[in-house]
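Section 5.1 Outputs to date
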Amino acid sequence: AKIMSALPQQKAERLYTTEEYLTFEREAEERHEYLDGVLYAMAGESPAHGDISTNIIIALGSQLKDRPCRIRTKDTKVFSGSLLLAQSRQSRKGLFSYPDIVVVCEEPRYLEHHCDVLVNPQVLIEVLSDSTEAFDRGAKFIRYRAALASLTDYILVWQDVPLIEHFISQADGNWLMVTVIGLDASLDIASLDVTLLLSDVYRLIEFPTNESGLEEEGELA
């Protein structure tokens, strides 16, 4: 995810309804995510974050160009929650998020006539940042799993290590986690029938330690 302003610092002390949030957000100069009435301001991305996101879009786009799949980037809002409650406009329940990359292969469905809040993503990809990692792994993924029946894959991409965590929806309702590590590795997204080479994902990225950085930082110890 993009770097947020001191997550989970909220925009104001008050709670917003979904109607108030959407009205405010459509006129705001900066983006905000929304969780159960609270607004979270989002800040700009790091150079590595931008490069990785662009690399993934290029890799996906080249493989999906002859398919009816759309790739949306960081300005697409996704709603996770009760559509009935959200459409009542006075609810304060639900998550409005801006995933780094969204893939939808069915006809896009939207929360309302503005057509700016997607409700049927198939694949969501987040490039992790220190300030948002806990949110991406925790509250967001909980809401995605509970509310998005269309979601088949949730993918977390590390910035400072060539490592991707791939969560895959299973027929029994559970999620399988697959981790791929190293610039010579590849990630298969079976639901899209595409493969991401980590050497492509991390093109132009300079890592702060050795290639893996895992032993020195003890990430997988």
